[in-house]
From TrEMBL:
Name recorded for this polypeptide: Branched-chain-amino-acid aminotransferase
Pathway as given in its UniProt record: Amino-acid biosynthesis; L-valine biosynthesis; L-valine from pyruvate: step 4/4; Amino-acid biosynthesis; L-leucine biosynthesis; L-leucine from 3-methyl-2-oxobutanoate: step 4/4; Amino-acid biosynthesis; L-isoleucine biosynthesis; L-isoleucine from 2-oxobutanoate: step 4/4
Taxonomic classification: Bacteria, Pseudomonadati, Planctomycetota, Phycisphaerae, Sedimentisphaerales
GO molecular function: L-isoleucine-2-oxoglutarate transaminase activity; L-leucine-2-oxoglutarate transaminase activity; L-valine-2-oxoglutarate transaminase activity
A Pfam family hit: Aminotran_4
Gene3D superfamilies: 3.30.470.10, D-amino Acid Aminotransferase, subunit A, domain 2
Domain of life of the organism encoding this protein: Bacteria
Any single Gene Ontology cellular-component annotation: cytosol
Keywords: Amino-acid biosynthesis, Aminotransferase, Branched-chain amino acid biosynthesis, Pyridoxal phosphate, Transferase
């Protein structure tokens, strides 16, 4: 079935949703984006995603012609037009059409693209079995280079780590920061469980301020777990009782092996499973 794509203020057929080869989003990865889930026809954490999008845009001095309310309307229209009840929205803002030079301010209007579709990041069975991952040798972007908190169209840093994972026969890689502390996975935040306490690296360690991460911290709190945001080392991962990832596309998924070391008993742990179930319940409005 052909999708209806929102592009530059209207919905068009997928085949007509095209952008210029002079768009700086294509030429330079100059732009920002969001990935957002739809559960039971409702956009999950819509406001939080929109705020993060506009903050990313501000950080790169990208002006978006629509305000947050107008963007929300456009997203909801796109979801409706595609009949999406359970799915995923990709919201993309590119710098727009410019010249072959870098100058972003030559580009007149940012392009707005909204895609509403389905997504399956990891195979379904791995939510029960857990993921095996490697530590990447690719260091997460230094915050003084390109802040990992900007959800930019430049994902090459993460893609380099993903290539390393794929080359090792794995689906995912853990990225460390310039000081050797754990940052995040290529498209997800990371948590560990040790002796009943939940730990996650602070956002300042070089990760995106994940919206699923924040939700899982809140749910953990409600369930009575202590959540500690502190720097984690590779040793902490290797010796954790449980490790799991969180992200919009990934949701909550257990990790059962890192660099050939088995985590816990080699299956997703009890707290991981509890949080995964709670997350699904919460997201689907139960
Ligand atoms: N880190 C990176 C690099 C990501 O791309 C994502 C996915 N947006 C996340 C973490 C998870 O963030 P969220 O829970 O907001 O999707």
């Amino acid at each position: 079935m052909s999708l209806k794509i929102w592009i530059n203020n209207k919905l068009v057929d997928e085949k007509d949703a095209v952008i210029s080869v002079f768009d700086h989003g294509l030429l330079y990865g100059d732009g920002v984006f969001e990935g957002i889930r739809v559960y039971n026809g409702k956009i999950f954490k819509e406001q939080e995603h929109l705020v993060r999008l506009y903050e990313s845009a501000d950080a790169i001095r990208l002006q978006i012609a629509l305000n947050i309310e107008e963007m929300s309307k456009a997203m909801n229209e796109t979801v409706k037009a595609n009949g999406i009840k359970q799915g995923y929205i990709r919201l993309i803002i590119t710098r727009g059409i410019g010249t072959l030079g870098l100058d972003p301010f030559i580009c007149k209007d940012a392009s707005i693209i909204i895609i509403a579709d389905n997504v399956q990041l990891y195979p379904k069975e791995l939510y029960d079995k857990g993921l095996k991952v490697i530590s990447s040798s690719v260091i997460r972007n230094h915050p003084m280079s390109l802040s990992p908190q900007i959800k930019s169209l430049n994902y090459l840093n993460n893609i380099m780590a993903k290539i390393e994972a794929t080359d090792s026969g794995m689906l995912e890689a853990i990225m460390y920061n310039h000081e050797g502390y754990v940052a995040e996975a290529t498209g997800d935040n990371i948590f560990i469980v040790k002796n009943g306490t939940i730990f996650t690296p602070p956002v300042s360690s070089g990760s995106l301020n994940g919206i699923t991460r924040a939700t899982v911290i809140e749910l953990s709190d409600e369930l009575g777990y202590d959540v500690v945001e502190q720097n984690l080392t590779r040793f902490d991962l290797y010796t954790a009782d449980e490790v799991f990832l969180t992200g919009t596309a990934a949701e909550v998924i257990g990790i059962v092996e890192i660099d050939g070391r088995k985590i816990g008993d080699g299956a997703p742990g009890e707290i991981t499973k509890e949080l995964k179930d709670q997350f699904f319940k919460y997201a689907s409005g139960e």
